[in-house]
Amino acid sequence: MEEITINIVIADRSYKLTVARADEEKVRKAAALINDRVKSYSKHYAFKDVQDLLSMTALQFATSTVKYESELAYRDQHLEQQLNDLNALLSDPL
Fold it and tell me: Side-chain half-sphere of 19: how many Cα atoms within 13 Å?
C-alpha cells in the first residue's frame, strides 16, 4: 500500500496527513464536507469560537453514522432472516 503526504485545511487550520494513495480523494472530500458544514453552521447559529462549530459538525456526522449503522444492522438482520427462510424452503423435500 503506497502512502502519500497531503495537506488539508479544516476550519482555516492546515493539517499534514499521511494517507494511502487510494484514500486521498476520500480524505479530501471528507475535509470539504466538514468545511462546508462548519461554514453553514457559522451562518445560521451564534458561536463563541470555531470549537463550537466543529463540535456541532462532529455531532451531526456522528449522529448520521449511528443512524446508518442502526439501519444497516436492521437490514442485515432482516436479510439473514429472509435467507434462513429461503434455506428452510429449499431444504424441505418436495
Answer: 14
Average pLDDT for residues 29-52, to the nearest whole number? 95
| 1-24 pLDDT, tens digit each | 899 999 999 999 999 999 999 999
Let me know: does 30 contact 19? Beta carbons within 8 Å: no
How do the domains of the chain map onto residue ranges?
Answer: 3-91
Whole-prediction pTM value?
A: 0.76
Q: Which of 31, 28, 23 is nearest to 3 (CA)?
A: 23
Give the long-range contacts of residues 37-42, CB within 8 A, separation 24 or more.
37/61, 38/10, 38/11
Dihedral sign of CA atoms 30, 32, 33, 35 in order: positive
The pLDDT tens digits for 58-86 are 999 999 999 999 999 999 999 999 999 99
